Amino acid sequence: MKEELERKLVERWPTWFDVNGSIKRTLMPFGFEHGDGWFGIVWRLCEQLEPAVNRLEKETGRKFEVFQVKEKFGGLRFYCDSSTDEIDALIRTAEEESTRTCDVCGRKGTTRGGGWIRTRCDEHGDGNA
Ligand SMILES: [Zn+2]
Question: In angstroms, what is the span from residue 113 Cα to ligand 1's centroid?
Fold first, then answer.
């Protein structure tokens, strides 16, 4: 995603996304490795995760951290270091939503084949927008 969108997420949830961390520990220094069209999905997911993460941190005494966010086979992948059934379910819902959402513009899309599987609307098709 473009930097200004990434920055919004990092500023809102600074302890979740360690974009300045060591790549031995987290892949977030590589950024959010998906298109701008999924910003809304990731933002909503993080908002929904907040209460669940607060409970998890309280119970375990550990900080929740996301170590990779990327596109794979046309779908969002959101990997974190610890989770609960509740957190897993929220992530799964967001990942499913991404397979119906164009990763360029955020409109309704379908997963399309070819060399690199992506989820796109009709307008953005299979191009490299
Ligand atoms: Zn599109």
Answer: 16
